[in-house]
Amino acid sequence: MNKTSELKKIEPKAEILSLSSGIRNRIRPVTYSPPFETLLEKIEETKSNNLYFYMRVLETASGAEVIVDGRRMIMLGSNNYLGLTVHPKVKRATIRAIEQYGTGASGSRVLSGTHRLHVQLEEKLAELKNAEAAAVFSTGYITNMAAVSILAELGYTLINDDKNHASIIDGCRIQDAEVYFYRHNNMKHLKKVLERPQKDSTKCFIITDGVFSMDGDIADLSSILLLARQHGAKVYLDDAHALGVLGKHGRGTAEHCNVEGQVNLTVGTLSKALGSAGGFIAGSKDFITYLKHASRAFMFGTAMPPSIAATAIAALDVLEKEPEHLERLHQNTKEVRDGLRDMGFEVPLNETPILPVIIGDEMRTYALTRLLHEAGVFVNPVAYPAVKPGKARIRVSTNALLTSQQIGSALTAFKQAGKSLGLI
Question: Could you give the residue numbers annotated as active site?
Answer without folding.
Answer: 213, 241, 272
